[in-house]
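User: Modeling request: complex.
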Amino acid sequence: MNADEKSWSQLTPDEKLEQRWKAFVEAPIDFVSPEAEAAYRARATRLQKATLLQGTPDRVPVTPLTHYYPGRSQGLTPYEAMTDYQRAADAWLQSNLDLQPDAMMGPLFAAIPARAYEILDVKIMSWPGHGAPMEGGFQYNETEWMHADEYDLLMDDPTDFFLHVYMPRVAGGLEGLAGLVSPQDMIEIVTGPAYWMRWASPEVQESLEKLAAAGREAQAWGGAMFPMLGRMVAEGFPGPVGAMSKAPFDILSDTLRGTRGLIMDMFNQPDTVLEACDRLVSFAVKWVTRRATPHSPPCVFIPLHKGADGFMSDEQFKTFYWPSLRKVMLGLIEEGFVPCPFAEGGYNDRLEVIRDLPPGRTAWHFDRTDMRRAKEAMGGIACIEGNVPPSLLNLGTPDEVTAYCRDLIEAVAPGGGFILDGGSVIDEAKVENMHAMVRAAHEYGVY
Amino acid sequence: MAHELVDALVGMRQKDALRIVEEMLDRGEDPQSVLDLGQEAMQIVGDKFEEGSFFLPELMMSGEMLKMVAAIIKPRLAEQATEKAKIGTVVLGTVRGDIHDIGKDIVGFVLDMNGFKVVDLGINVAEEAFVEAVKEHQPQVLALSGFLSLAFDSMKSTVDQVRAAGFDPKVIIGGGQIDDTVRAYTSADAYGGDAMAAVAFAKQTAGVS
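Assistant: Request completed. Predicted assembly structure:
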């Protein structure tokens, strides 16, 4: 029986991976032109070969990971990108058409709908006009949203905790949900009425109305964004990343306990932290796999934060950060996905540890890591991506960008397994510098 | 042998440290000498951080523990308690438009441990507020923090306005994307890749080794 004849659940991880990439590269899309189709197929194939270490592609792919750059390049401030959905969608499309990257520069982590956040009175984030300046993007407010003595609540029933404890804290509009309890209370149906009563309280009703209003606002936003995403693919820009996940330690640190809180927990209740990291492994894997289909894009974006050089010792990295992150990645690989960690900051001290992964199944985007060392350590194990400094793209000249890219390509592209990109997420950059980066891949990256 | 309080603090044992502090005070020991032991521990933590055997977690943890110890002791401290002389003054803040504070807080903490008076203006600090603080405190060093690319312009205008107002503290900048390209753009005197770089710069500027 070959892979085509087996049901999805019977496939091996490698067969699933192959199917996902096949669906991605050969996607039956109504392209805008034969040229767009040719561009899409060539780009998708290029990305596949580089990502999976399948020898050398025709040239080095160049896939700028952007934040507000596409909007800014078309004259939109982040505030405008978050409030005028159709203008934002048009701007992102135009920016892709103008730059011609090998993977689409997507809007979904930048041009988010400000009004939906306003309706819900979200507190864990500040955004333009709402605690952050108009010309800047959104920023997170990190604090102890989960208390030090609430690990048991989290581990016992994450959904109950997130819906009824966490969300009421991080969004004023959802405070009413604190009056709800686990639906366990109505499973023995005779006890249902006491549970149902809670839903009729004015506080719960108010939060439900706000949630519905935010949902309608998000629909209006999606009505502008999703057709544009389809159009971008039809124009020839593949979107290899279809989902995101996170390192369990970062879920605890960024989202729940805050850096300070979690660091204190590392010393005051280390076993609990480790247990929670382990508990969050399946949570982080299912975040991606729960709604996945065989046609889901193969790459999973995993931004990494608190494990960078300097944030903790090697020993702490090996104890607290890496084991559960590795399990998340293996869980995704098991389902035929390619985890794509984005290692913000430096990862020079971590290279020897993160090599412990199945070859050709992950792609690492590095920021301030020494790319030559990364190539040495990860060569034959993982595709590496990066690392044109954002300061250079923002403040440098096209010649300087070209020189950096050429040097980088010559150093780490030989043999394949390299994707040219900015170091960190590109927020502000000169348009001519972005073009210089893309041109460098065409001029110096041909194999 | 180090005092058991110093051991507990350097060993990152919060419960033990607080218990020992309470016991010492109950025994009638001089609150100032208890606080001095806390400072002694912080010095060891700082040294270990500098030599690379301690990292951010130990630095933040010990800082939090010291705050707790100080909170217990401060109400009992005699009024005549004097602060140690400082070796210099640093005005510190995250620049306009940027609300990131982790890096800034670490820099402030490490500078404080190393004997500097640190005037921390907080986050999203306007240029005018920096100018005012520089005027009031006459620091040797102005330390500007920022994580976002929009911070490049805020840093530049802060440096420009401080100098236009006639002040000339040495300026160091730092944060996720900060490198020499940004240093040149902002015309800062230096950039720091980590907290120790800020300490080395401040010490050099203040003329101490």
